[in-house]
Structures are given as structure tokens and as C-alpha cells.
Design goal:
293 residues, Thymidylate Synthase, Chain A, two-stranded antiparallel sheet
Length: 293
């Protein structure tokens, strides 16, 4: 993750100070790229602790096309609370704890003209198998018609995959990149997406290309960023992914089982570890910072 640290340092040294919708203000640069080869290890930040169980929980939530943050609460995850319970959103929420038509619902339940529903992810998995050289292997969460129907319009807006000689690569475009809190989480999550898709299509996960458009550090995070930049990274860990999860239906069924068991009183951590976990993960202590909403 040294390239991540290099971009953080570039923002601190060369970024422009800007106002933003949260009123917090940022220092930002525009148009950066990080590339991670999976054979070199899993791209988990090591200069602070990555909440990997939260990465898994949120991704399963997306893959199940859920918008109910109460399910995330059962898994010990509250990263959507600031948006789902925000004053600007609550009058439009469909129920208490609704995050709106977010990533998972766009990925798996796109509202098309004429009342059609499109499962972009299922279509993607099928097309990778039937037409691996296609240039249309793309999934988008950015629906201009539904921007007002979600508590937070998609930051990681779309991704595309590429098949080559039995290997699968994934490029993700992130329009808005909170470099301290969000980007380490997003990079790990899309590396996990890559591994899931590779396992479902019997390909080898190859490279994650993470495109950062508006790459910014909030002013309230600057001290935390400087603390992080003073730390030397550890070697990248490896990923273990449950080999029994071979289809989207397998993943959704496991998610529903985990939520049910967690709501019944089981600790969610070991249940999430049974889906995926990092092996040999060394990291520096966590650095606290508040999310800007």
C-alpha cells in the first residue's frame, strides 16, 4: 500500500483547499490511479488497522441488494448510520433504517424503463463465462434518475472487469475518494469483489486498478493523516475466501444465515470470518477520525 501513502503525501503537499457539501472542507487532487497485483498480497492498509469484518459485512449487504442498516447493526457495523439517519434523508426513507437505493440495489435491481428489473451482477457473471472478451463487462451504481432516492449517491460509481489467459482483473472508478477513512476500505472491498467474481467464474484474480477522481483529505483528518504517514507499512497479507461460495445465490444465502444467527444472539465476528479472512495481517494501531456527513 505504499502507493496509497504516496497519494496521501501528494495531497498534503500539493493539494488545493476546497469547500465541500459537508461544510468540513478538504484538501484535494484530481485523477490518481493505484494498481494492486493479487499475487503480491491482498491490498489491506497496514499503517493502521483495517476493519476487515466491516468490509465483508458491507459487501455481503450489497450483494444481497439490501438497504436496511438494521441488518448491518446485527453484524456490528454502523458505517451507514450517519447517512441513513441524517436529517436531510429521513423524510425520504422508506422505513426506519433505510439507506435508500444504494449500491446493492443498483447492482442487483436496476429500475429499467417499462418496469423491467436488471440484475447487473448476475448478468456480469454469466457474460464472463459466455463472452470473456467482451468490453461490456461493466456494473454501475450511478443512476441519475435515482440520485435523490439514496442517502448517499455512489462514491465508487462503477467497475469493469477484463479477462486474459484465465485471469480476471477489475478496474473501479471512484468519483469521490475520502482518502483517510474511505479509500483503504474501498480498495480492500473491491479486491474482495475481484476474488468473489474470480471464484464464481473459475478464473485467477489478477489485478485491481483503483481510479481516484476527486481524491481528498478532510481538514479534520489532516493530523491523523500526518500520523499515518510517519509509519512504515508491513508486508501485505493473504486472503482466505470460503471455497464453497461458488455463486451469487450461495453468497446471499450465507449472508441471510449470518444475519439470522447474529440477530438470534450469536457473535457476528466468527460468522464473517467463515466467509473471508486475512492471513498474516500485521498492522499498526488504529487511528480514530470522524466521518464527514
Amino acid at each position: 500500500m505504499r502507493q496509497y501513502l504516496d497519494i496521501l503525501r501528494k495531497i498534503v503537499n500539493e493539494g488545493v483547499d476546497r469547500d465541500d457539501r459537508t461544510g468540513t472542507g478538504t484538501r484535494a487532487i484530481f485523477g490518481e490511479v493505484m494498481r494492486f497485483r493479487m499475487r503480491d498480497g491482498f491490498p489491506a492498509v497496514t499503517t493502521k488497522r483495517l476493519a476487515f469484518r466491516s468490509v465483508i459485512a458491507e459487501l455481503l449487504w450489497f450483494l444481497a441488494a439490501s438497504s436496511d442498516v438494521n441488518e448491518l447493526h446485527a453484524l456490528g457495523v454502523r458505517i451507514w448510520d450517519g447517512n441513513a439517519f441524517a436529517d436531510y434523508w429521513r423524510p425520504r426513507a422508506r422505513f426506519e433504517g433505510d439507506a435508500g437505493r444504494n449500491y446493492g440495489q443498483q447492482w442487483r435491481d436496476w429500475d429499467a424503463p417499462g418496469g423491467r428489473r436488471i440484475d447487473q451482477l448476475a448478468d456480469l457473471v454469466r457474460r464472463i463465462g459466455s463472452d470473456p472478451s467482451s468490453r461490456r463487462h461493466l456494473v454501475t451504481a450511478w443512476d441519475p434518475a435515482e440520485i435523490e432516492d439514496t442517502s448517499l449517491p455512489a462514491c465508487h460509481a462503477f467497475f469493469q472487469v477484463f479477462v486474459r489467459e484465465g485471469r480476471l482483473s477489475l478496474l473501479m472508478y471512484q468519483r469521490s475518494a475520502d482518502m483517510f477513512l474511505g479509500v483503504p476500505f474501498n480498495a480492500a472491498q473491491y479486491a474482495l469483489v475481484l476474488h468473489f467474481l474470480a471464484q464464481m467464474t473459475e478464473l485467477e484474480p489478477d489485478e485491481l486498478i483503483h481510479v481516484l477522481a476527486d481524491a481528498h483529505v478532510y481538514r479534520t483528518h489532516m493530523d491523523a493523516v500526518r500520523e499515518q504517514l510517519g509509519r512504515d507499512p508491513y508486508p501485505a497479507p493473504k486472503l482466505w475466501l470460503d471455497p464453497a461460495l461458488r455463486t451469487l445465490d450461495d453468497v446471499v444465502a450465507r449472508y441471510r444465515e449470518i444475519v439470522f444467527r447474529a440477530q438470534a444472539g450469536e457473535k457476528p465476528g466468527p460468522l464473517l470470518d467463515g466467509v473471508a479472512r486475512l492471513v498474516g495481517y500485521q498492522h499498526h494501531p488504529a487511528i480514530k477520525a470522524e466521518m464527514a456527513v
